[in-house]
Amino acid sequence: MLRVILADDEPWIIKGLRKMIDWPSYSMEIVGQASDGRELMSLIDTQRPDIVISDISMPHMNGIEIIKRIKENNLPIKVIFISAYQDFNYARDAVTYGAVDYIVKPVEKSKLDEVLNKTIDYFNKRQEEEIRKGKLQHLEHKNRDKEIQEILALLARGKLSPQANEYRLAKQWISYEQYCLGIVELDYRGNRSERWTDHEAKLVEFAVGNILQEVVVSSGIGHVFMKNNRYVYLSREITKASILARDILEKIRSFLKLNVSIGISAPANELLSLSAAYGQAEQALELKFFDGLNDVYVYKPVEQKQTLEQQIYNCQHEVIRHLTSRLWKEAEVSLAGLFDTIRLASYPSRSLTLAACFSSVMSIMQALTKTGALSSAAIDMHELQNKLAEYETYEELKAEIIRVLDEFHLGLDDQAGNQGKLLMAKVVQYIHDHYNEEITLESVASIAFMNPYYFSSFFKKHTKTNFKQYVTDIRMNEAVRLLTQTDMMVYEIAEQVGYSNARHFSDMFKKQMGKVPNDYRQDARG
Q1: What beta strand segments (E) does 127-186 contain?
Q2: Distance between CA atoms of 306 and 345, rounded to whole angstroms?
Q3: How many CB atoms lie within 10 A of CB 263?
Q4: In what residue span(s) does the Response regulatory domain sit (predicted)?
Q5: pLDDT, tens digit, for every residue of 221-239?
Q6: SS3 per-residue string spanning 299-365
Q7: CB of 100 within 8 A of CB of 119?
Q8: Which of 40, 382, 489, 512 is the most exposed place for a label (fewest CB within 10 A)?
Q9: In this structure, are residues 258 and 188 in contact, taking their beta carbons and an 8 Å threshold?
């Protein structure tokens, strides 16, 4: 609503103006009235109107003085003057000072309507102009932000010299005395092949970017850019670097239900040091491999490590000795010692740890092959190397190595083939009886009195498929039967075959069958 003040030293004129116009129909409301110039200026100060409709000739301050005062104070107020016939030339001169128009007494409704519409047009045009300017400013700001992001990415790669124009621009726009750099990395658990599609990844990237924009950029404490498909932020909050990182982590976890880890560099003084700061943040981020996901890690210089090659060799030898003697429990104890020694020698480098673990597995396998206990084709080492590199944490990596060695330990002495078949039959029957419940690898492994890692290998050996896919196949086959032979709703079928979320069921069905459930039903029924 536009705010209006009426002013005239004759009360009956103000009363007439109030009744003459249906003010709300013009999206206007009268917020005050004055009977002289001083009172009008006082009301202008307190009410901050959009429009003043005033007699041009009033006690204490005339119209010209009033409009001059409004202009001096740079107030966005439009003035409409009412003048007697003898003040006609005077009122016309007032227009040159910025009045919208003037109306000669006696005031005619049609003339007042015309002037009010003219005033409304002015406000509409002013609003459009402000929107246009706002869009231009937003675009300019957006383009500058994009340019800053590109420059920071170049600096992080060490691709800018102090003489480069981009570097000079960065110095103008980013004048921090000190800064910290943080890398935000999504945490994955389980099979990496089950990560998001490209479209889902883009949505996640957009959502994480919005949170960083709010926490870092909009608050004025830094900038955000991307490198190696990860978000990186630059912050001048040196003393609160960990607090800021944890705030980002908590907001992503709260709003997006995603886990991330954040590595923070040591404070840096020069933008040219940004590449080194990025390396520090990456090094800090590697700590999540050892210490767990979904946390904040601060860079610390790496201490000189003593070589532990002999200790690693001794641990490997113990593992080999126990495996060739069919002593799996003892081999597990030796493996635990091997893993602890590798961590001690390689921490905090994930790459060194991966290399040491893979090298140890190779040494153990080669030794078993030489003894004749294993054939040389017992394991695809290239495939194993790629698989080990996928794991996010040292605990996952160790579990996979134990699973692999346990699987081949079973292969060293497989005298219980018939017993295995009987046990497998029991497991399969259990799955068929309980597929519509919350059934997991761990729960079925407990039925077979096996640890999950060994059971996974045992199951795949007998069924030629993994446990998860086996259960999914059973559920989807039953879903097809219900879709084609009943009129049950999709959400009812989802519950019937073990899915509490109908959307998840539809996604899984489409992935398995190539169509969403309703389309499949329609096509099947012709």
Answers
A1: 180-186
A2: 7
A3: 26
A4: 3-120
A5: 999 999 988 999 999 888 8
A6: CCCCCCCCCCHHHHHHHHHHHHHHHHCCCHHHHHHHHHHHHHHHHHHHCCCHHHHHHHHHHHHHHHH
A7: yes
A8: 382
A9: no
Contact between 4 and 40 under an 8 Å Cβ cutoff? The reply is no
**Tokens for 189?**
């658990």
**Do you know the residue count of the chain?**
526
**Residue 368 structure tokens:** 């078993």
pTM above 0.90, yes or no: no
Identify which of 267, 182, 191, 195 has the alpha carbon closest to the alpha carbon of residue 231.
182
Contact 176, 236 (CB under 8 A): yes
User: Of 49, 48, 47, 4, whose CA–CA distance to 24 is shortest?
Assistant: 4
Cα separation, 488 vs 490, in Å, equals 6
Q: Which residue shows structure tokens 């390689």? A: 346
The answer to whether residues 248 and 231 touch, using CB atoms and an 8 Å cutoff, is: no
- 3-state SS, residue 232: strand
CB 67 within 8 A of CB 53: no
pLDDT band, residue 136 (cuts 50/70/90): low
Torsion of CA 47, 53, 55, 57, to 10 degrees: 60
**Vertex 238: Cα angle to 234 and 239 (nearest 5):** 150
Cβ(275)–Cβ(156) under 8 Å? Answer: yes
Model pLDDT for residues 254-302, shown as the tens digit of each residue: 999 889 999 999 999 888 889 999 999 999 999 999 998 999 999 988 7
**β-pair type (260-264, 180-186):** antiparallel
Residue 287 DSSP SS3: coil
Q: Quick one: residue 498, left, alpha or beta (phi over 0 = left, psi -120 to 50 = alpha)?
A: left
Whole-number Å distance between alpha carbons of 39 and 51:
16
**In the chain, what percentage of residues exceed pLDDT 90?**
31
